[in-house]
Amino acid sequence: MHLLLSWLIGLLLFWLGPGFALAQYKASYTVLKEHIRVDVKDDGSNRYQMERVIRIDTPTGVEKEGEQRFGYVGSLETVEILEAYTERPDGTRIVVPADQIRTQDVADDDDGRIFSDRKQKIVIFPQVAIGSKLYVRLDNHHHTPYFPGHFFIGEFFSPAIPQLDYRFTLVHDPKLPIKVTAKSHQGEALLKKLQGFRISGGQVPAQPEDPPGSIRYEFSVVQPVAIASERAEVDSTDFAAWIGATSFADWGALGRAYQARSRPHSEADEAIRTLAQSLTAKAGGDLDKLRILHDWVAQHIRYLGVYVGAGGFVPRKATEIFATRYGDCKDHVALLEAMLRAVGIESSPALINLGDAYGLPELAVSNPINHVITYVPSLDLYVDSTAQFAAVGTLPSEDSNKPVIITATGELKRTPPQAPTRDGVRVLSRMVMLSDGRIKGESTMHFKGSYAIDSRQAWHKRQHKDPQNTVDWMLNRNKESGKGSFKYGDPLDLNADWVVTSFYALDEIANLPGKSAFTLPYGLTMATIFHTSAYRQITDRVTPFKCDLYNIDEQTELTLPEKIKVDQYPADVFYNVPGIHYSANYHREGQVIRATRRLLIDFKKSVCDQADAIAWEKARLAIRRDVRNQVFVR
């Protein structure tokens, strides 16, 4: 067998030619040198100095690294590029001209929904090619800290970028207590791939150039090997090596510092109180009041942020948000807090990650916190009023099972995970096959929880577009063609169940009359088991990955033409292992075939590992075999 395999590989290489090589991952650039020094004063202000040399290793590196951007907040920081040049592969140095170091306002971000006083220095390197070395040295003076009297920094190291000489030096005034630590990459399999990785360092004696009495730390990192990012991997803050420093005692202290700055901005004026009380005048209780006020904020305050100064950490005043009818996540939370307090309900901002990070680093370095939602302690409920399509009692999957800091108390909690009792979709389809193999059918899709949130948002975007485009796209995903239409309610009516009904006429799925075979059609349905079974898992992965809940129930009834005889139809399937359940039941009564398929993937966690991926892939292949089984007729 081994000889045959070698012969086949040799024959393949012969056909492809001598220039053929199996593609392997290569980072777009290598960090040859990155030396950072941070000097922190007792009030939290600091000076960040960086000297970096990278080598461009691929065409992608030329494209993406030829212009380097260094962001900062204009009212809090200044950045100066002290030196920059390109060193060509032959050793020639070409200095970046002064007019190619530009300052640009970052006035438009997040799809045009954020405006700020953030700026960036752009260094445009000349004559960049593969093998070029790009050098830059900069000085960043952070003269006004985000939180008065506090400092924090987190340096995370992606496994996808080689680091040959990284050094981090922190010098701080002893009057500002700062915790400092360094952690390696997590996981034996990952470290085995990153052969030669090393992180070391700690506190060292102060040097003569340091201010008298200073405390000094030095760290170094070497990562000569890099690996490609793996599909669906969680945020690198969950597993990557990092160096962190913070003056906050813990995450609760950071939350309380946020509270100190946000709470004064959450006061209601007479206009806010009047509206909140009138909206809830007929409410049955606190839960009903929360629902009414949450829905009002979610639907009347459009998402848009204006970040000036520490605006990335401090909301605008509730009165201003109410008057302008726009705001970012912090602003939504501040206004909702003011409105709830006006009707006697206390709430708190809850700091969270809106992304793929499911843990918090040991030190409160701000990363990966990037979002704020509302927590109502009397109801023990979390709501996200920036999630316009999330009814009270549900959370988007991005908010689910995440650590949160309750800023009013400093408590560290966790949002509820997805659950089969709350999240899922049930699809009921009735179809009739015509004598020529065409299909006429109707499907009703009942969405709940996070499935309903995603579906409402999708249909809200589609509702004023050409419906045939949606029909074509959906049928193409199902490997079918034809015509159809949809019926659904108002996606913004969060008090009604979310149901989408489709009506369709499919082109021939079977060659009739005569002998033929076909898989059971899907028609105009979404979130199907068919699509899930096509999602191949990486079984040799080394990084943890995001594993959402899959909860799909499909019931299909297909009526065949009278003169058709059924020779064979799929057999029942039952697959059950820890975390994965799949069952398929097929029943025939005369010309009617009924199929019930149920898929539940619930590992009781949001972060999975290689063992979970292996189990998932094994199950996927069994499921895929079933959904591709055919009905044989003549």
Structure in words:
It is built from twelve helices and 36 strands. The protein is α+β, with helices and mostly antiparallel strands and 634 residues long. The protein is 21% helix and 35% strand. Helix 5 packs across helix 8, helix 6 (286-300) runs antiparallel to helix 8 (329-342) and helix 7 crosses helix 8 (329-342). The radius of gyration is 29 Å and the shape is globular. Strand 4 (77-87) and strand 5 form a beta hairpin.
Question: Would you kindly provide a brief summary of this structure?
Answer:
The protein has 634 residues and is α+β, with helices and mostly antiparallel strands.
According to DSSP, the number of beta strands is: 36
Mean pLDDT: 92
Number of helices, where a helix is a run of at least 4 consecutive DSSP H or I residues: 12
Radius of gyration: 29 Å
> Which outline best applies?
globular
Q: Identify the quaternary structure here.
A: single chain
User: Structural class of the helix and strand makeup?
Assistant: alpha+beta
> How do the strands line up in the largest sheet?
5-4-9-2-1-11-14-13
In whole angstroms, how far apart are the ends?
Answer: 42 Å
List keywords for this structure.
634 residues, alpha+beta, eight-stranded mixed beta sheet
Q: Which SSEs are present, and which pair or pack?
A:
Elements: H1 2-16, E1 29-40, E2 46-56, H2 59-65, E3 67-73, E4 77-87, E5 93-95, E6 101-105, E7 114-116, E8 118-124, E9 133-142, E10 152-157, E11 163-172, E12 179-183, H3 188-193, E13 198-204, E14 215-223, E15 241-246, H4 251-262, H5 270-279, H6 286-300, E16 302-303, E17 305-307, H7 318-324, E18 326-327, H8 329-342, E19 348-352, E20 371-376, E21 381-383, E22 403-406, E23 411-414, E24 424-433, E25 439-448, H9 450-462, H10 467-477, E26 482-488, E27 498-506, E28 516-518, H11 529-533, E29 545-546, E30 550-559, E31 566-568, E32 573-577, E33 580-589, E34 592-601, E35 607-608, H12 610-627, E36 631-633
Parallel strand pairs: 1-11, 7-17, 16-18, 24-30
Antiparallel strand pairs: 1-2, 2-9, 3-8, 4-5, 4-9, 6-8, 10-15, 11-14, 12-15, 13-14, 19-20, 19-22, 20-21, 22-23, 24-25, 25-27, 26-27, 28-36, 29-35, 30-34, 31-36, 32-33, 33-34
Helix pairs in contact: 5-8, 6-8, 7-8
